[in-house]
Structures are given as structure tokens and as C-alpha cells.
Amino acid sequence: MSLNRSEKEAVVAQVADLAAKSQTLVVAEYRGVTVADLTQLRVKARAQNVNLSVLKNTLARRAVAGSAFEVVADQLTGPLIYGFSEDAIAAAKVVADFAKTNDKLVIRGGVYDGKALDVNGVKELASIPSKEVLLSQLLGLLQSPVSRTARVLAALAEKKGEAAAA
């Protein structure tokens, strides 16, 4: 079913608005993926605030023109699914995790911070821990010297208490 001109303009405007808000774009080829699997991928994506879209490539090229995602405009060929996310790693993580369990979904590339990413770049971006995990790791690092000092002081106090009792 083809779209008329006004519908195409609306799709381009919607995707351009989405691209303006997003930090990351991941592009994957979905040839051979079942509808049930794609539905499962969309559910996971929605849970992570990732917008997955199947678009005509010419409309996608027009939508990303003039944005940070324009660097991959020449690679937009074939049946592609586009994952946009405001979070820097969410789109890469959702698509890469799904691609691990479904070999028919093939990551083609992506864009982060205005730089084109190849397949390995997308996988590396997906392997970065989430913001919450990084913050908890940082908090653990900041707490470790204090907790070690407290344990040493407690052991010294206990040792002095044993010496005084003897």
C-alpha cells in the first residue's frame, strides 16, 4: 500500500522530529524475521524508550537530511528497521540483544554523536553498562576507602579491647 504525498510528508516530518530528539540511530536488516519476533522486539524497545520504525528508505533519507544521522544516508538500502533513542545506548542494546537470539536480524550500522558506526561499533556501544549501573559502580568505588578505613578502625578497637581485658 503506497502513501500519497501528504502522508509521505507527514512521515518525513515525524521521523525528522524523532531524529532531532535522539542521540542514537541503529539500522538493522530484518529480512526473514517473523512478525511475532518483530512484535517481541517492539515490546522490548518500547520498554526501553526506543522507537523502532520500518520506513521506506527514501523517506528515511529525507528525514535524516540535515541532522547528525545524515552520515549513514548512503547505507540505507534494503528492508531496514530504524531504532531511534534519546538514551545513548538504549537502541544499540535493544537491537544487539535481540540479534544475539535471532540470527535473521542483521545489524547494518548506526550513528552516535554524529559519527557513523559499523556493526562492531554498534555492538561495542551496546556493551556499555547503563547509566544506573555506572552510577552504582562509581558509588561503590567512592565508598570502598571509607568502608575499609572503618573496618581497620573496628579491628584496632577490638584488638585494644582484648589487650585491656588480658
Descriptive notes:
Strands 2-3-1-4-5 form a 5-stranded antiparallel β-sheet, with helices on both faces. It is 57% helix and 16% strand. The relative contact order is 0.15. The longest helix has 35 residues. The chain contains 6 helices and 5 strands. It has 2 domains: 124 residues, Ribosomal protein L10, N-terminal RNA-binding domain (Alpha-Beta Plaits); 37 residues. The protein is of the alpha+beta class. Strand 4 and strand 5 form a beta hairpin. This is Large ribosomal subunit protein uL10. One of its GO terms (molecular function) is large ribosomal subunit rRNA binding.
The averaged pLDDT comes out at: 85
Question: Structural class, from helix and strand content?
Answer: alpha+beta
CATH hierarchy, class of the largest domain: Alpha Beta
Gyration radius, in Å: 24 Å
Q: Detail the poorly predicted runs.
A: none
Shape: elongated
> Order of strands across the widest beta sheet?
2-3-1-4-5
End-to-end CA span = 91 Å
Number of helices: 6
Oligomeric state as shown: single chain
Search tags:
five-stranded antiparallel β-sheet; Alpha-Beta Plaits; 166 residues; elongated; 6 helices; single chain; alpha+beta; 5 strands; 2 domains
Per-chain topology:
Layout (H helix, E strand, L loop, with lengths): L4 H17 L2 E6 L5 H13 L2 E5 L2 H8 L15 E6 L4 H12 L4 E7 L2 E3 L1 H9 L3 H35 L1
Antiparallel strand pairs: 1-3, 1-4, 2-3, 4-5
Helix pairs in contact: 1-3, 4-5
